[in-house]
Predict the structure of Chromosomal replication initiator protein DnaA.
Amino acid sequence: MDSIVFNVSNQLIKTMIEKHCLNEVKATIREVLGKEYEVIINIVNQNTEEAPAPSEAILNEKPKSAGEATFTLDLSPTTNDKLSKVESQYIQHMSDPGMNIDPTKTFDNFIVGPSNNLAHATAVAISRTPGDQGKYPSLYIHSNSGLGKTHLLYAVANGIKENFPQYVVYLTTARDFMKEYIESVKSKTVDAFQEKFTKKIDVLMIDDIHELKGKKGTQDELFHVFNGLYTNGKQLIFTSDKSPEEIDGIEERIKTRLQWGLVIDIQKPDFETRIAILKRKAYELDLYLQDDILTLIANSIKTNIRELEGSLVKLCAYADVMNVEVDTEMVKDILGLSSSDVERKITLDIVAKATSQHFKIPVPDLKSKARTKDIVNARFVAMYLSRKIVNATQEEIGRFYGGRDHSSVVHAERTIKEKMNNDIALSRDIVTIENTL
Ligand SMILES: Nc1ncnc2c1ncn2[C@@H]1O[C@H](COP(=O)(O)OP(=O)(O)OP(=O)(O)O)[C@@H](O)[C@H]1O
């Protein structure tokens, strides 16, 4: 760790600082300079020339008591440090309140599973090393609605604010970016707009970039903003409901740039992730739900985490207003679950068909003795999912897949679990199949 040395004139002052205000000194240093320093306090003879000038007058007067002692800290942040802090505070203040950074959305309360682990890991890496110092100076996250893109943007912003307080982090929506640009055109302040976006920002995040569809003028401006920030090694993050090549009405040169960095999608969460999210949100709402109720909700709402949260908010409000305990009947009633939602039973046949369709391998091949790599992989996945979702015994599964014995199923299950730790593509295949069930 780097250190900062303070010279003081006598032991009394040294002891007082070390005993009473070392933590505050360290905190101030962290706030102004943006990282931790070891603080060393030296006693220097006050007559030597090295004694720091600003404190000299004060240090020359020996305090008579602890209460009388004062000293001046001269951490000397550079002008740039000060300016970027001012800019950061100003921009924070001027941000559209609609897109203020929500301090409650962090990495700590983002539940990670196979559907979002790549997006999460990249976002964490950026929050630790933003811009071209890190591996991902440009990131593009896409997914269907309500799967956590904005939550991750907030988490990155909160992480960077903590790790690099001097950085100017600007989080906006594509619509607000457009509004701001149009305002600047109307008020003839386009120069200031360009200056702000290309020179003053360290981290630019634009949510829902697809909203710029057909907005030629704003797209031109975005093109320059992108080039300016990217060439200066700043951090860019975009989100959208589509991959860059799928967005209509966005110029090719912008799509190309959006693809310069890492492009990651978030998929629908699998059953375990849905349960973990429900547990976490129920805890936050101070709502106690039994496991069968959590399972019922997780089996009924599969595609949107916002809806999953909404269901709990509704249940919580209902239980509160009516002063009743949450039970299964109430959940079905309040959430409007039809009996087909609740009673649909997933069988070995259904899992086999879904796996077969995903890997484009016929079901008879899955049940055959064939040992080619692709068929074995698909068969193992089908066996793994049959255990996990149908909860069938290993004997039943072995019998279903061509009369194999239970040890083949044990082996399949173990192999897939081990592979999933490192093989992201396989984890995604499994989530995709689960989501079709
Ligand atoms: N993995 C997760 N863990 C915990 N909460 C999550 C997770 N994913 C999403 N959420 C929560 O679900 C809600 C919707 O997420 P968010 O707004 O980030 O989705 P989005 O993908 O940006 O949606 P949209 O495209 O509609 O803007 C938020 O309250 C968010 O905190």
